[in-house]
Design goal:
It holds the Pfam family Mito_carr. The protein is an all-alpha fold and 374 residues long. The protein is globular, with a radius of gyration of 25 Å.
């Protein structure tokens, strides 16, 4: 029996569901008999999507929400896409104040020397409202990115596992995670890039724009549509290694936790415990993500803030050491917390959909299970 057999009951009155050998639309006498029998026995037989009446005509029936989502079905990938949209959009928007400080430290290190200095300067010049600058492009951009990132990752992971077969998928599982996450992120960043360009300028150039509504048209008027995508290549340079590290480290960390740390198998752990493992695996993955992607993060902030600037200009001004270290401690804290929270939200949505949490089994093992048993 699966750990998801204790799913919540439907909020729709049970007498609206279809029952075996009964139909929803009946004569008054038949309906009375059906409801009397149902409430007396209080037994609910598994419903069907439609029921045929005795004269051969189809009767409408409501399917129960308790039915499980079939693994790797279109509904499964849709659920993962929605979960990804929510987890990325919510978490990135929530840490907008930290993002404002980080971006300003990267762009103007002489003015914003450290976290304390950046915090005081922002309050002095813009007030507490300054810490919310750029929240709207952040919400839209990272919601779109999360939808593509997680949805396409789940699809790519299954696709590559099927190509190589169960034996090699299990043997080279980390390569499956890396290939799947890289494929997903390439598409996800195309969706993110325009909003990232607006976000950085709104956060680092006071007076440039109030937010998305006036910032987006201003960039288009001055630089054309190309101005919204000029940071795409550096964004790929930041996000693709970041995402590859994020998913591969998370999957392997969670599997290791269940094997070496947890006293019971994953299937016997409660949902809250499984979500706790997701947070721990996500936070550990976030630390590695922050370190490997930080130079490119500094580069993206510099290019989006400086019109006509090149990569060579960024390296010359920031220096190699500065690209690797400037704003890194804050970003480690920010990305660790962010990634841990993302995996909790993502897996919580999957659990609500009747799906298992992520990790704890190789791609080959999961691909062999056609559905989650009730």
């Amino acid at each position: 029996m699966s750990e998801f057999s204790d799913s919540s009951r439907s909020l729709i009155p049970s007498f609206l569901y279809s029952f075996a050998h009964h139909r929803l639309f009946q004569s008054p006498e038949e309906s009375a008999t059906t409801m009397k029998t149902h409430f007396k026995s209080r037994l609910l037989v598994s419903p069907t999507s439609s029921v045929s009446s005795s004269n051969g005509t189809a009767s409408f029936a409501i399917a129960t929400p308790n039915e499980k989502v079939e693994m790797y079905s279109p509904t499964y990938f849709a659920a993962c896409t929605v979960a990804g949209m929510l987890c990325c959009g919510i978490t990135h928007t929530a840490i907008t104040p930290l993002d404002v400080i980080k971006c300003n430290m990267q762009i103007d290190p002489l003015k914003y020397k450290n976290i304390t200095s950046a915090f005081k300067t922002t309050i002095k010049e813009q007030g507490f409202k300054g810490f919310t600058r750029g929240w709207s492009p952040t919400l839209l951009g990272y919601s779109a990115q999360g939808a593509f990132k997680y949805g396409l990752y789940e699809y790519s992971k299954k696709y590559y596992s099927d190509i190589v077969g169960p034996e090699y998928a299990a043997k080279y599982k980390t390569l499956i995670y890396l290939a799947g996450s890289a494929s997903a992120e390439i598409v996800a960043d195309v969706a993110l890039c325009p909003m990232e360009a607006v976000k950085v300028r709104v956060q680092t150039q006071p007076g440039f724009a109030r937010g998305l509504s006036d910032g987006l048209p201003k960039i288009i008027r001055s630089e054309g549509l190309r101005g919204l995508h000029k940071g795409l290549v550096p964004l790929w340079g930041r996000q693709i290694p970041y995402t590859m590290m994020k998913f591969a480290t998370f999957e392997n960390t969670v599997e290791l936790i269940y094997k070496k740390v947890m006293p019971t198998p994953k299937e016997e752990c409660s949902k809250p415990v499984q979500l706790g493992v997701s947070f721990a695996g996500g936070y550990i993955a976030g630390i590695f993500c922050a370190v490997i992607s930080h130079p490119a993060d500094n580069l993206v902030s510099f290019l989006n803030n400086s019109k006509g600037a090149t990569v060579a200009d960024a390296v010359k001004k920031l220096g190699l050491w500065g690209m690797f270290t400037r704003g890194l401690p804050l970003r480690i804290f920010m990305i660790g917390t962010l990634t841990g929270a993302q995996w909790v939200i993502y897996d919580a949505v999957k659990v609500l959909a009747g799906l298992p949490t992520t990790g704890g089994a190789s791609p080959a093992a999961t691909s062999l299970a056609p559905a989650v048993s009730a």
